[in-house]
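FW: tagging you since you asked about this chain on Friday. Here's the raw sequence from the shared folder, copied in full. Didn't touch anything.
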Amino acid sequence: MQDGFQVKMDEFLPLRDVVFNTLRQAILTGELKPGERLMEIHLADKLGVSRTPIREAIRKLELEGLVTMIPRKGAEVAQITEKSMNDVLEVRRAMDVLCVELACERISEEALGDLKAACENFEQMVKTKDVKKIAKADVELHDIILQATGNRRLVQLVNNLSEQMYRYRYEYIKDFSQHERLVDEHRIIYESLVNKDKETASEAAKTHIDNQKKAIIQRIRLEREKL
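HL: got it, structure written out here
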């Protein structure tokens, strides 16, 4: 287990939520790796808490699909499999297409300005080679498009899927060879929204997810070959 993560106290959140958020972030960013065992005593000692919030956090993470309970072994970080990735990306692809189509109709000039700035910020973050910063910039960019839809239910659905999506996005962004492609795809989406070109926006959103899917499948298969 890596020692990179630690509990960050928040006076506004109960301890169990702080522990849950800490472990979830460690899983999503790969600090806790797929297949790694989550031992309550070890985690409690590491985070300086009792076993109760650890146990509660593991239970919630299992409900989110980030932790798997293995008979006679206990809890471990859920594997990133082609099936689990396909399930998430199939839904996300459909929602992203809807997002850009609605945004074509509804995005304001102010939001377009924000989106342009977000695209430029993403390009700057790519140059840093800092995966966490790049992932954060990517999330912020897509969130501008999501909010521009003005559809609260769609925002809720995308946000419900966002934690699972972040895990796959993070795996994708770790592949530096894909960064220029990401920059180009963001630029095409932005320009199609400026031009209110719904067809181009829709195709660009599909391509954006399809390329992500191909790259992650390749990484999953390479990891499998190492075992």
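FW: Strands lie at 67-70, 74-77.
HL: agreed, and The two ends are 18 Å apart (CA to CA).
FW: great, closing this out.
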